[in-house]
Amino acid sequence: MPQPLRILLVDDETVRAAMVEEALGQEGHEVICHLQSPASLNDMVARHAPDVVIIDMESPDRDTLDSMALLNRENPRPVVFFADQHDPDSMQAALASGVSAYVVDGLVPSRVKAILEVAVARFDAFQSMRQELDRTRSQLAERKRIERAKGLLMKHQDCDEPQAYRMLRKLAMDRGQRIGEVAANVIDILEGLEKGQ
Amino acid sequence: MSMSHAPERSHLTLGFVPLLDAALPIVAREGGFFAAEGLDVTLSRESAWSTLRDKLAAGLLDGAQLLAPLPLAMSLGLSGPPCDTLAPLVLGRNGNTLVLSHRWAQGMAAPYDDTPGGRDPAINARGFAARLPGRGAPRPRLAMVHPFSSHHFQLRDWLALGGLDPDADVELVALPPSRMVEALELGRIEGFCVGEPWGTQAAHRGGGHIVATGAQLWPGHPEKVLGVTRHWAERHPTTLTAMIRALIAAADWLTASPDHRRQARDWLALPPYLDRALDHLPTLPLGEAPVDQRFTALRPDAGQLGAVVEHLARQLGGSLDRERIDACYSPVHVDAATPRGGA
Fold first, then answer.
1. Shortest CB distance from B188 goes to which of A39, A66, A71?
2. I need a labelling partner for B300 at 20 to 30 A (CA). Which of A74, A78, A101, B61 fits?
3. Does the record carry Zinc as a key word (chain B) (predicted)?
């Protein structure tokens, strides 16, 4: 069993950070989370002396790490940019997922690769989770819109709910639009009328 | 533009960092100069120079606003994996300020005022050195934006004017430009060297004093450049020419009238670009002391990178390949785009 590594995780997405932390913890590593991004990252690195820093590609703190890799000559554990030119595929995968990593000089590449793969998998999983959430949210919003349009139609056309729904469906078919789009249109027109009164 | 010269690629994504010298790409887009060259350009705001570098190298961006030393550092493999990168156009000259907190700046002259301290940057630097605590006490922390930036090298040069060793007498850290003012106000750093509008913003908000400028230390230095990979440039020569022409047209328009600079300021203040960071500037100040921001003389010249090359050579512990520097900052692309030397 290889020695566990100390990993510093810099990520503003708290849910994603928790996912990565759990997954790396299960592999036996010690994960230190750094959720906010103040100027104290230098102190964090100095205090915890991590073997690996995993950081969100979009984080403004990346330049701080880049600089530490080059300037901290007296630091016994310099952080150097992980640039494995012999393995461009894993670098591309990390980049596409938004993971970047800094590791101490001399760490066995295969161990870094394993950690990177875990982080990339969690970043990807988080991305699909968020897309799913967005989809659910927009479906919910659409359902609310249809209800609102039905209510307005019932009032203006003095009809019942099934009739109002049939009207919306017919409009959608005639125009070749989705029923949600037609509902938004109906709301615009009927609410405009109400305001005009 | 004749059809035979249609760009190989009409939709481009260019990366930028929210700074005043992102002006040319923003003006070229908002003012229709890219469109006039048949280019549909998306500008992608990035929060770190390392991110711009990595996205450019990986082909996720077609081009980017880069710190002038970065294309050479990328080509030499000093910053990220080696990636042959070109700087076909200068995007801005000067623009940097050196700002210190009240405590450290007390009694110092403002750059270019009529006192000797205003004229000679060494006087403020020696004043700073005189205030340093003795060995063993905590060193003041000064920030710059990236190890391969003129800000880093200018800060080192200024400290050296005061007889200081930048590696031993102070602690140098890198912070994104947009975080400098807040870090100074919160007392996390004692000073910084950064591009506009952040230096004048710190002075305007009262958190710091401008004690030197990049224009004083390296007058007229190329500060930002357009960066493209050699691979990209070779595959898209007509697109590159069109991009250069649009950026030069934007610069010509910008310098033509004060009205244009006010209009440009309003474009830059749009939320996708610099947003509220320009609140203290009623217009784009060009060529004004002490910052002396300029968008002229866009033709790159490797000879003007002298100070950068010296710092890089010292970092490498050797000399740099002259041919590589010349290739990196070659004016051939500008000359191809402007047959009569319009840049």
1. A39
2. B61
3. no
- Contacts (Cβ under 8 Å, ≥6 apart) of B139: B132, B133, B169, B170, B171
Given a cut of 90, whether residue A44 has pLDDT beyond it is no
Order across the sheet with B11-16: list the strands: B40-45, B11-16, B63-67, B222-229, B85-93
Q: Is B84 on the interface with A (CB under 8 A)?
A: no
| ipTM summary value | 0.87
Question: Pick from B82, B176, B186: which is nearest to A63 by CB?
Answer: B176
Cross-chain residue pair B51–A58, CB shorter than 8 Å: yes
Query: B30: which residues sit within 8 A by CB, 6+ positions away?
Result: B267, B270
> Which of B311, B99, B337, B101 has the alpha carbon at shortest distance from B226?
B337
Q: Do A66 and B173 touch (CB under 8 A)?
A: no
Q: Which residues pair with A9 in a beta bridge?
A: A33, A54
What is this structure's pTM?
0.86
Instruction: Name the minimum distance, in Å, from the CA of A83 to any CA of chain B.
Output: 6
Nearest to residue B244, comparing CAs of B53, B63, B69, B15? B63
d(CA B262, CA B273): 16
Q: What pLDDT score does B2 carry?
A: 43
In angstroms, what separates the C-alpha of B163 from chain A's closest C-alpha? 20
How many Cβ pairs closer than 8 A exist between chain A and B?
Answer: 76
Scan residues 104-163 of A and list those with Cβ closer than 8 Å to B: none
Over range B121-125, report the average pLDDT.
95
CA distance B2 to A190: 51
Residue B246: HSE in the Cβ half-sphere, 13 Å Cα cutoff: 28
